[in-house]
Every structure is written in structure tokens, then in C-alpha cells.
Amino acid sequence: MNTPHDQSQRDRFIHELERNFSVVASAGSGKTRAITDRIVALAQHPRAAEWLPSLVVVTYTNRAAAEMQQRARQSILEAGVKLEVINAFNRAFFGTIHSLCLKLLRQHGHYLGLPAQLEHLNEDDDAALWTEFVQSSTAIGAGLDPEQRRALLRLTPARRLLDLGRRGHITEAVPAPGPFPKFDFEPIYAFVPKKVSQVTAARVQEAMRRWETAWEGDDFVGALPGCKCAPLKPIWEAAIVPIVEWRRCAALHVAAEISQAYREFRLGRGVMTFSDQIALAAELLRHPEAAQRIRAKQYRVILDEAQDTDPTQFDVLLEVARPVEATGPWPSEETHPPLPGHFCMVGDFQQSIYGARADLAHYRRVHQAFLRTGAGEEVIFSVTFRLDRAGIEFANAVFPIVLHGLERQVPYVALYPRPTAFPGQIVRFDPKAGPEIIAERALKNKEYWEANNLAHWLREVGLEKLRASSWREVALLCPRTRWLPPLRAALRSVGLKAQVQSERSINGDSPAYAWFTALATVLAEPRNGFEIVGVLREIFGLSDHDLAAFSEGYGVRFHLTAPTGRGGPVAEKINLLVALREQARSLPLFSAMEEMVRVTQLRDRLLSLPADEYEGLGFELEELLTKAATAEAAKGTLENFAAELQSEFHAARNVRGALPDAIQIISGHKSKGSEWEAVIIPFFARGAKTQSPVYPRLLRDPRSAATIAAMESSDVDGDLKTAVALQEQQELERLLYVALTRAKHTLVLVDDRALFTGKKGLPERSQASRLRCGQGEENAAAFERLPTKLSACTETAEHHAQKAIVRSQEMILPLPTLPAKALKASRERAAVFLKRNPSALAEAALAEADPAAYVAAARQASSAPNAGQRYGTWWHNFVEVLDWSAPVASWDRTFETHLAGSPDPDRSHHDWALLRTQLTSDSDLTRLLAGPGTLAHAEMPFLWAMSERECLDGIIDLAVYDRQAHRWTILDWKTNRVPPSRSHYLPQLSAYWKAASEMLHTPVAAGLYITATGQWLPYEESELAGAWDALSRNSAALTEALEDDRGD
């Protein structure tokens, strides 16, 4: 049987284009392929030219949208559809829900009276705007009557109500509460405790009497006293219910007013947040005329990752797919559901792990509404194309106990293997904890002990037994990001490369970004004493004592407007910054930032930090310098650049690609959507601590879906607290399902129960506890039966080898024979295409950074003798014919043969001696050029289609393919002097790297070889990606690079 078990379900979703579907797609079930196939089916339909422009594909990230759009476009092109269909597809929407909402607002926002242009506001960077809003507000709770308002403000500080409204994102009006209720505390006072509870009961009773007495006055009284007397607590909760419920209702009403007023204030200032985009789009679709115009476009919506969609986002997507005459929200109003074939959603209840921003209960209600009303049908993708048979059997054995479908938990969907599934293996690794470490009380010591044992074990078993093709295909998953660093340190200590991927990282977490931003800020804002003190303290390492002695209580002394005449280390650094600022004011932005890095020794300071804790700081610094060059090209000033850095300080850091041959260490949440050939779950029995909730907060009652404003912990009664705790526990159980379904061939569970089990058994919040692996629990026997040793698999190894062969063959693309008519047309239209020559990008960067210097250099090049160029040409001709796999003697003979043609024989002898020394020693360059299994291509030309109108062509000096690592490396010979900044040639190399990566579909590295110094200078992948990202968005820089390189 060569077809998947669920192929009939897949065929329905792909080909029944006039039906709505809710697809339940299990882990690794190929949902992206199914969505792409449905889009291709739309393109092959006779009405494709009509349907495709109204196609709306919504994904969770822009990156996922771009990938899906590219895959769909490629499949449509391969299907051979008409040109008009391709043009129609190019008008389809692929993007996030926020992008879609922004598109609707730009087209129809005038119905809401919105400004024509609205800028984005980061919600974490709205302090100044919020302060302005608060200062302009005249009253809080204007929608309440005077008595209600007075009662609420006596119970709750105004600041807490403001905080709730600021972050609450309440999109709908909330009814006002009734009159303040009467209350009766007599049952509390009448309670007679037993002897053991007399003291605590008396304290509660006395506190309640004081509160009641204070309430009879007019002053602020605050929250009700708590109750720490367990026997009294049920009576206490019943007595305070009227007050608690009234305050929750009143606080929610006022918070909604504040939230709406702050949104209108933001719009009045021409800015909006991501939450505003969703709320305003939902409001737009409640506007009768606007909704009709939007629905008239007959959008066909395909929603991916439906389980991560919140209720308001669902409202937007459902409403755009309904008929023009629809009124009222669906599914609350069950008439006029989405048109047939106009709404499909793909998700997985089992992978709903973002309860803080999504709403699983609402997703389930929408799903059931489709089935109940007949507006859509359910299809289930149960065949996984990821897990091998052992992984499937283990999941099917243990997860029905965990995902049981009871008490609002989702039911488990059994997995089925693909027809070509390999055996796979699930292994229980016992680190054999001895009595000494078991008895250790410090949790940190146990953590490091397990990490070190696991690291040594991984090095010992190796890739073959893990059934992985490279270390990059091995991942360690943890439920807590703070557990990741010890694993990285342990792996590195045994010689294994490791890379931590954290989902919570912001730009400011990096010392490179934080320190660079702080320095740029003080140069732009010379009277910003707060930042100046931070720079002196954090970057220059000056003590608080020295800073206090310098200021003597006068903070105004910390400024950079003029040198200080005082003495000491603080004055010395301030004067250094003053001189730097004066110099920076007369320099172009990029040069000023380079000088800032040099004068403050920022690079050396960053590289002195522990490498185990801070990765790639030098490369991040280069990215920031590239950012400065880009800002300068856009005519940015130092002040604007510093403000831009500050505004992005709290933004999420860009996702970094996996480093070659580095084990990936990643959190369970971030692992969603990814897969590896081998996955290890460390700290399996370790309990995860939880943080106490921060009040005030909005929470959704899992039992009723009602929104509750909890100002204090007393606003969350025992039953609600239990329901919320159960909901959180169930989400963590689903997170465990996600983690245990990421492995293709090998899953290793670290059996550290002996290490972390206490007197009361397994920690409640451990993964082992969630899987029910404790003594006597339902899955304990299945867990114990797992094998304890890894084994190699010939079938899997052959699969890896075959994939490697296919990849290498894909790199050699046969060029088809073109008909004469096509060749003639291409010659006639060649001028339409924009040619990009990456070898001139260094000159383009210089032209942008310092136009005067560029003009001077150009004049000098045109008038000076071209000896440097002739030497560069000679060197390239010489190394082009070198056989890198030949003996050293052969290289020497080649050199002697070509020496006669050198314009500078002494220099040739010098440069060849340096290169020869490199190649005959155990250096990185030797392993690159002359290692086993390497294949070198000199002067390799390329032509890459950047877009439909632009192409990039050039010649790579030396491209080396490592057949064992399946990796290419680009080497660029530089025979002239390299500027102090490595960023000089970064634009050129980033263009080579990007073109090769896109064309070869395999990891690519790039670097420079400096003939004058004998240095091999590789670039980091993140450095290249950052440079290309900046360059690709700057057409001016690319245009400057069109002229040919003059030889280097």
C-alpha cells in the first residue's frame, strides 16, 4: 500500500473547492503540502482567474506565508497553467492576520474616520504616549454614576484601573454594573473556631471589622482583607461574593472605557499597535456599508495554525467570507455562515499551547458551529510524515491517557505511519544518579550534573546510533528557557558545538545591541545623564563609589557638552566621550559609529565576555555597523539612528539560522513547527516552578468564557483558581505532546526520576508527571519498557546517504535548449532586467558612507598606475589553475611557471609563502581547500533571478564543496589592503552568499583570504544574512554597484 491511510480525507480537502473544511492536522501530517495542493487545484479550475485574486492565505508568521506562497507558485508553474492564471495568483494575499487587517484598514478605514497614514507603535515602547494620555485624561470611570464611581475608587486605586485599561485590549463595550451591593459579614463574626484556629480566625474577624468600619466613612479603604484561616474560608468567600463580583464588573467596565479611549488617543496621534489593527478591522466589519463592500470581493480564506487564533481574529476572518447580506456576528447568529468554499481552517487542538494569546475554547466552538450548522465539514489528517513507527506506537500508547477529552481537555487523535516509515527508536536514558547527587539539596548542582552526564553520553554514542545525518539534526528540548544554558555549557565542555534558541530574546538582551545603543544615545543626547551614568558603569566598568565621588550629589555633572576640569577615572572617561562626540558630529553616520567602536574599544569589551553565555557578539556588532551604513544611505542622522535603536530595544531578536554541526537547544514552545532527526528530552522529571500572577489582570473563566477583571488575588475565588490551574496544566500536557512529536527517527527521554523525585513522589509540574510516569501511574509500565540503548539502523543510514546524493545532484541544474524565438526575445528585452554585480558592492557601500572619499578614490583609480589591478589579475590567474588536491611540489611548480608573468615578483614570493604555509599546516584553510572529500571550482560564474525584473550575476573566485558535510564555502581573494572594518567587503560577500544559498539549496559559508597578511577571514552566517537583509531593502546601494569591479 503506497497511499497514506487518510488519503481520501486529503483528496476531499484538496479537490472539493466549493466546500468549507475544518482540518484537524496532527503533528507532521503535511498540512502545508495539503494547503498548497488546494491552491494549485484552485489554479487549475476553469474559474481560476476569477477566484485567485480573492484568495486570502493567513499564516502565523510572514516567513511561513512567504514559504507557502513560493511553494504554491512553483507548483502552479509546474502545472503549466495559463499566463492569466499566474497573473491572478500574483494578486492573492499571503500573510499574517495583522497584515490582512492593515490591508483592510488602508482600503476601507475612511468608514471609521481613520487617518490616511498610521505608523506602527510597539506596545512595549509607549511610555511617553501613555504619560501624555494620562495627563490629558480628566476623569476615570466617566460611564459610572457618581455613587458607583465613588465606591469603585474607594475599593481600587486609580492607578490599577489605568494599568488594566492600558494592557487589557478590551475591544467591546462592557455593561455598567448595578448599584453597590449590600453585604453582611455577620456569618464571619459569628464563626466559632476550634482551638487550633482561634488565633488566625480572630485576626481575620478583626481585620474585617476594621474594613467595615472604614467603609462607613468616606476615605479610601482598599481591597478586602484576606483569609488565612482554612475552616473560616468558605464562610468568608460566601460573605464577600457580592462585593467581589460588583468590583470585578465595575473594574471591567472602566478598563474597557480606558482601553477604548487610549486607542482613540493613539489614532489621534497617528499611531496604532498590532492589537489596534485587529480591533479596528473587527469594527470595520461591523460597519454596514464597509462590511458589504469587503464581502463583495468574495474572499476565499485559508487559515493556517487555527489553534493559535484569538476570538477577535476569528471574527475578522469569518466575517470577510460571509455573504454580502449577512448581519450580526457568526456563529452567534447562525444565519448566513461563510459562503461554501470560502473558508477553510487548518489546525490541531492537541497543539494549542499559546493560551496567553489564543483561545482554544473559542476555536472549538467555531469548529463545532461549522459541523452543527452544516456550514463546513471536518476532515482529519492522521498520517504523520515525520515520526517513524516506534515514535507513533509510543505516542498512541501513552497520550490517550493524557489527552483524554475530559474536563475541557482535548481528545487524542491516533497517529498512523506513512507508507515508507522507518523503524525508528524511543530510548530511555538513565544517567545513573548516585546517592550523593540524589541527596544534593541544591537544584542547580543536580541540573549541571545531569547536563554533564548527558553531554558525555551524546559524544560517546555519536551520530550513527542517534540515526542523525549531522549534529545540526539533533535537538534538546526543555519546557523552560532558563534550563537551556547549562546544557550548552556541558556540550561545549566535551567538544560538541551547541546553539541555544530562545523565543523570549529581545534585542536589548544582547550586550552588543545594548552597549552600542547606549553609546549612540549619549552621543546624540549629550545631556542624558541617566544613559551617561549607565555607559560609565556598564561599559567602562566604573564603580558606584567613583561615580558618586565625581557627582557629589549633582547629577547635572554627567553631560557631554564640554570637557570637565575635574580629575579621576570618571572625568577621564567623560572627556573621552566629549572628544568622541565632537569628532562624530563632523563625520558621516557610518564613520562616526566606526570611530565610536574604535575609541571605546567596544569590540574588545564585548569579546571579553564569556563566550559560553554570549554567542556571536562580534558578528552582532558588525550587523549594527551595517545598520548604520543603511541608515546613512537613507540620509539618517545620528539623532534619528539612536532613536531607531532605542525604539527597537524591546523588539524580538531576529531568528538565527541553525549553525552548521551545532546541536540545537530550544524551548518546547519554540520547537513547534520544527522537526529534527533526533530529539532528546532532558530534565524529564524536574519540576517547573511557576510565578505568582501579577495583578491587576484580565483572565477568561475556562468554565463560561467570561472575561474577569481581577484587581487582587481575592477576586479569584477557589473554584475559579482551580479551573484556571487545570487549564494551565492541560496546556502543559499539550506542550508535552508537541515536544514528543518533533523527532523523525530517534527520541531520547532522560529518565532522571531518581534524581528529582521527592518524598511526595514526582514533582507535579514535571514532564514525567504529565505523562503519568510516576510509580503506579497509568503510563509507568510503558515508560519502563522502553529500551535503554541506542542502535544504528542501516535502512535509515541508507536513506541519509541517498538524500545526500540527491542534494548534490540538485546542485547541478541542466540548462534546457531554448528555441531561437525565445533567444531572440531575451536579447531584445535584456535591457528590461536590472543587473546586480556583487563584486562592486564594497564600492557602493563606500559611496554611501562617504561620497567625498568615494569620488577621491575614483579619481585616484582613474589617474594612478594600475599596478595593483594587474597584480590582482595575475594572482587570480595563478590560483585559478592550482590543483588543490595535488601534492605541495605540484603547487610550487605551478607557482614558478606563473611567476614570470607577475608585475611584482617580490610580492608574489611573499604572498605565496604565506598561502603555502597556511596550506601545509593544520589550519582551517587547509581543511577547507585540501580536506578529504572536497571539490573546488575556481572562477565559478552564476546568474540568479532575484525577482521577476532583477537578476544578480557574478563570478565567485573559489567555490569549495565538502561532500561529507554537504556544504559549500565561497572564498574571495583580496590582494589589496583590507580596511580596518570587516564590513567593507561584507555587502559583496553577502550577495555571493545569498545567490549561492538560493541556487544550491544547501548551507553556504563565505569568507575572505587576504594575500598580504595570509589571513583567512570567514563571515558568520548571521552576519551575511543581516548584511543582505539591509542591502536588499536599499535599491540605491544596489544601483551604485552596477559597475564592474576594478580588481582586488
UniProtKB/TrEMBL annotation:
Record's catalysed reaction(s): Couples ATP hydrolysis with the unwinding of duplex DNA by translocating in the 3'-5' direction; ATP + H2O = ADP + phosphate + H(+)
Residue positions binding ATP: 25-32
GO biological process, one term: recombinational repair
Keyword Nucleus recorded: no
Any one GO MF annotation of this record: 3'-5' DNA helicase activity
Keyword terms, alphabetized: ATP-binding, DNA damage, DNA repair, DNA-binding, Exonuclease, Helicase, Hydrolase, Isomerase, Nuclease, Nucleotide-binding
Record has Chaperone as a keyword: no
First-tier enzyme category under EC: isomerase
EC number: 5.6.2.4
UniProt domain UvrD-like helicase C-terminal: residue ranges: 407-673
Every UvrD-like helicase ATP-binding domain range: 4-388
Protein name, UniProt field: DNA 3'-5' helicase
Organism field: Chthoniobacter flavus Ellin428
